[in-house]
Design a protein that fits this description.
The structure is a single chain. Strand 4 and strand 5 form a beta hairpin. By secondary structure, the chain is α+β, with helices and mostly antiparallel strands. It is 17% helix and 32% strand. The chain folds into 2 domains: 238 residues, Cathepsin D, subunit A, domain 1 (Beta Barrel); 164 residues, Acid Proteases (Cathepsin D, subunit A, domain 1, Beta Barrel). It has a 6-stranded mixed barrel with strand order 4-5-11-6-10-9. A 4-stranded antiparallel β-sheet has the order 17-16-23-24. GO terms for molecular function: aspartic-type endopeptidase activity. Keywords: Aspartyl protease, Disulfide bond, Hydrolase, Protease, Signal. InterPro entries: Aspartic_peptidase_A1 (IPR001461), PEPTIDASE_A1 (IPR033121), Peptidase_aspartic_dom_sf (IPR021109), TAXi_C (IPR032799), TAXi_N (IPR032861). This is Peptidase A1 domain-containing protein.
Length: 460
């Protein structure tokens, strides 16, 4: 009798330990049950906060149908294109080849593919202001939007295209301006003989491009946060998969990024929370107001290129057990955090260890076919509750970040729920901490102090 009690007690204790390192998930919660936008019950955290919406969700002004399903195939395809572009951009060999092939007609910025371009904010440009849905991107510097009269070509966008002639505060930047000179990279020089105005071009890794006039105008974030003379691209020649948005809000580390241009007000600090699902709203906040006291910071590392925010990954823990991954697996290629990449991409050895540990905890569930990019999927049909292991990342500075359950799985259908990670092809390709893993976290970019921070429950 005593032996039985002990055995039962041992099993109970083990079960409790197991449960402490797992998430209990209602399968119905994995898929939004409503086609309507779940508006927040309270106002934004601060006066400098913008609503963040998923481009294909019911909260988006771009969504053509509030009942339309999300095109996961398109998202994953574009995401892989962005990752390939980032890897190419951060490869010195490829950068040199690209720069040699550039035309000297324009000062050309080498941009990362927009990829899936998941998340949007609404920004007012001009006087009177013209509200535009811009994809925000920590992997890009220059903010740009399509402009009338689209002298060459413009892609289709949902909102009316910005007309600079209707804004009393609009002005082109002179070709002789130091700001124009700052666009020049890698020793390239723009040909100013054809125009007194500064022309710019951004060529993306997938062949997409945006070019036009470098300009200044008034930017309105909120009724109290208005900025005169913000440099941005007024694009009249655009081509590519920009998926209906009006342009891009650049949040990178470069001098022309929006945080850099507003540093006298916001001190080069911004934060965001990406919503748990497309039918919910997150926020993008500029300045230090509203930053949680629970934020844990990791230093910004010296990532290749001046735009990206580098971070140092030091380990991964699955189900309470730290994976046996040598530190050099992460330190050799380095890592960046990126708002525009969907799926976190890890060095091959790290991903294999993560996948193996995750699958070992998921043996009770039926495997499902995998879509492109993802390779570990499950069929939850007929189940009400599932248990998935916790996953946390260790960054330099003794910063451990546990992912929200919504940051572990990529939900396609109830019969195809996948591990939201992928492995890089090459050991020396930079790791990318993507936006799925950032869901519901408050992610803080403190450029002034050279650090990135994380806190749980960032959208609440």
């Amino acid at each position: 009798m005593i032996l039985c009690v002990c055995l039962d007690w041992g099993r109970t204790e083990g079960s409790e330990q197991e449960e402490s390192y797992s998430h209990t998930i209602q399968v119905s919660s994995l898929f939004p049950s409503s086609s309507s936008c779940d508006l927040p019950s309270k106002a934004s955290k601060t006066k400098s906060s913008l609503h963040v919406v998923h481009r294909q969700g019911p909260c988006s002004r771009l969504s053509s149908s509030k009942t339309a399903s999300i095109d996961h195939e398109e998202i994953l395809r574009l995401d892989q294109a962005r990752v390939n572009s980032i890897h190419s951009k951060l490869s010195k060999k490829v950068k040199d080849e690209v720069m040699q092939s550039h035309s000297a007609v324009l000062p050309v910025i080498d941009g990362s593919t927009l990829g899936a371009a998941d998340y949007l904010v609404t920004v007012g440009i001009g006087t009177p202001k013209h509200n535009l849905s811009l994809f925000f991107d920590t992997g890009s510097d220059l903010t740009w939007t399509q402009c009338e009269p689209c002298l060459v070509r413009c892609y289709s966008q949902v909102e009316p295209i910005f007309n600079p002639f209707s804004s009393s505060s609009y002005a082109n930047v002179s070709c002789s301006s130091p700001v124009c000179a700052s666009l020049i990279i890698g020793g390239l020089h723009g040909n100013c003989s054809t125009s007194p105005d500064c022309l710019y071009g951004i060529r993306y890794g997938d062949g997409s491009f945006s070019s036009g006039f470098l300009a200044t105008d008034k930017f309105t974030l909120t009724t109290s946060d208005v900025f005169d003379g913000v440099n941005f691209g007024c694009s009249e020649n655009n081509e590519g998969l920009f998926v209906g948005g009006a342009g891009l809000l650049g949040l990178g580390r470069g001098n022309l990024s929006f945080p850099s241009q507003t540093k006298n007000t916001y001190h080069n600090i911004f934060s965001y929370c990406l919503p748990s699902s497309p039918d919910k709203i997150g926020d993008l906040t500029f300045g230090s107001a509203g930053i949680s006291n629970d934020v844990k910071y990791t230093p910004i590392s010296s990532a290749p290129g001046a735009t990206f925010y580098g971070i140092d990954i030091e380990g991964i823990t699955v189900g309470g057990k730290k994976l046996d991954i040598p530190l050099t697996v992460f330190s050799t290629p380095g890592a960046i955090i990126d708002s525009g990449t969907v799926i976190t991409h890890l060095p091959p050895r790290a991903y294999e260890e993560l996948r193996t540990a995750f699958k070992a905890k998921m043996t009770n569930y039926t495997a499902a076919p995998s879509p492109p990019l993802l390779d570990t999927c499950y069929d939850f049909t007929g189940l009400e509750t599932v248990y998935i292991p916790t996953i946390s990342f260790s960054f330099s500075g003794d910063t451990d970040v546990e992912l929200d359950p919504t940051g572990i799985l990529y939900n396609i259908t109830i019969s195809q729920v996948c591990l939201a990670f992928a492995g890089n092809v090459n050991d020396d390709s930079v790791a990318i901490f993507g936006n799925v893993q950032q869901k519901t976290l408050q992610v803080v970019y403190d450029g002034a102090s050279g650090r990135v921070g994380f806190a749980p429950n960032g959208c609440s």
